[in-house]
Automatic annotation (TrEMBL):
One GO MF term attached to the UniProt entry: hexose transmembrane transporter activity
This protein's name: Major facilitator superfamily (MFS) profile domain-containing protein
Organism per entry: Lupinus angustifolius (Narrow-leaved blue lupine)
GO cellular component: membrane
Membrane topology qualifier: Multi-pass membrane protein
């Protein structure tokens, strides 16, 4: 008897009755032990990745357009002014990142996404319509605030709405979206040096994904972790039903209740994060993000066109290769994240970057010259981008969202990313000074 119910009024043997009962029980256990479907939460993760797409787009929007911007706004030839256009958004990102944890815990992840989209839309519009350097800098400052808000909220939201079995894979979607945003900015900016005023189009385009994020988030599920911490258990159950399916709600709520058990209220003192009982995990997070930026990856993204021109390589070809390597590494990370683990990818990523730096050192030495030096240098840079996107790029944000206790997660990631922006500002400033003297 294959799963058929036994008629209670029909005489059957004891073996048949027991077999039917056991089959029904096995089916129930198998259903309860099945893994939640990834399709339910995938759509919400895609919507959240629009914030990463906007982040990547704003990273690269001044790469191809900086020369035409400086010509139109009257500061061509001023290295300081050009550097300010590139780096002013970093100041805004520092401010946004500093307060992001408190915003995410106060208004929730969905409203946090909408708040980070708002300054991106305003800043993009101000930059697109600016008539002077100061208007451009103010627009970049607004955009930077949104850029500082989006990465912590994206890391939190993706980790909290994804089923455990695919959390690493879903966590790698954000870096892929960042890469696609960066590539889009580079490709859309290609006609900037040929078509007068094209750079304004590039900034108008950047408002589209931010507006889509603000609109679509209205229809997305809120993080059940945040709802549970706010004492809204019924809404948390409804969110889990959207994300995992009704059969998994009770087990998910039980696991959430167990993981949050013993956590104090959301009021965590700053001293506890900086030198209290959470110092060790905070030190790990800050170190990972600092090393991520000390590698110099964003200097490549900001100034790749200038770097390729110094080797007489077309910036279009060079930026295309950089984008392909970044995308390929991000896709490999998505495939391998849940198979090899975070630690393995992180170690191999930093090892690969060390090897690529060695190639560039050899290219700059007397051991290589002419075309050999060019191939070693450019090849080393492309290998650097590939290996970075394989682990050092996607792992820190995902790892921190997984190892941090729930009661400090948002604020701790916010502070770790504040260190990220400080170190990035120092790297970009040093690169600008070195480039000015070349």
């Amino acid at each position: 008897m294959r799963g058929r119910n036994v008629d209670p009024y029909k005489r059957v043997t004891s073996r048949e009755y027991i077999s039917a009962y056991d089959t029904k029980e096995d089916n129930t256990v198998r259903l309860l032990n099945s893994k939640p479907s990834w399709q339910r939460s995938f759509l919400y993760v895609l919507v959240a990745s629009l914030s990463s797409f906007s982040y990547g787009y704003h990273l690269g929007v001044v790469n191809e357009t900086l020369e035409s911007i400086s010509t139109d706004l009257g500061f061509r030839g001023s290295t300081m002014a050009e550097g300010l256009v590139v780096s002013t958004c970093l100041g805004g990102a520092f401010v946004g990142s500093l307060f992001c944890g408190w915003i995410a815990d106060g208004v929730g992840r969905r409203r946090g996404f909408q708040l980070c989209a708002l300054p991106m839309i305003i800043g993009a519009s101000m930059s697109a319509t600016s008539k002077s350097l100061w208007g451009m800098l103010l627009g970049r400052l607004f955009v930077g605030t949104g850029m500082g808000l989006s990465p912590p909220i994206a890391s939190l939201y993706v980790a909290e709405v994804s089923p455990a079995a695919v959390r690493g894979t879903f966590g790698s979607i954000s870096p892929i979206a960042t890469c696609l945003g960066l590539m889009s900015a580079l490709f859309i900016g290609l006609p900037a040096n040929k078509i007068m005023g094209w750079w304004r189009i590039c900034f108008w385009v950047s408002a589209i994904p931010a507006a889509a994020l603000a609109l679509l988030m209205e229809f997305c599920a809120e993080s059940p972790h945040w709802l549970f911490k706010r004492g809204r258990s019924i809404e948390a159950e409804a969110a889990f039903e959207k994300l995992l399916g009704g059969i998994h709600v009770k087990s998910a709520m039980a696991e959430l209740s167990k993981s949050e058990k013993g956590d104090e209220s959301n009021t965590v003192k700053l001293s506890e994060l900086l030198y209290g009982r959470y110092f060790r995990v905070m030190f790990i997070g800050c170190t990972l993000f600092a090393l991520q930026q000390l590698s110099g990856i964003n200097a490549v993204f900001y100034f790749s066109s200038a770097i390729f021109k110094s080797f007489d390589v077309s910036s279009q070809i060079g930026n295309t290769c950089v984008g392909i390597c970044n995308l390929l590494g991000s896709i490999l990370a998505m495939i391998l994240m849940d198979k090899l683990g975070r630690k393995v990818l992180l170690l191999w990523s930093f090892l690969g970057m060390a090897v690529s730096m060695g190639l560039q050192v050899i290219a700059a030495s007397s051991f290589a010259s002419g075309s050999g030096a060019m191939y070693l240098s450019v090849g080393g840079m492309l290998m650097f981008v590939l290996t970075f996107s394989l682990g050092a790029g996607p792992v820190p944000g995902l790892l921190m969202s997984e190892i941090l206790p729930g009661n400090i997660r948002a604020k701790a990631i916010s502070l770790c990313l504040t260190i990220h922006w400080v170190v990035l500002s120092c790297v970009i400033l040093n690169f600008e000074i070195a480039y000015a003297f070349v």
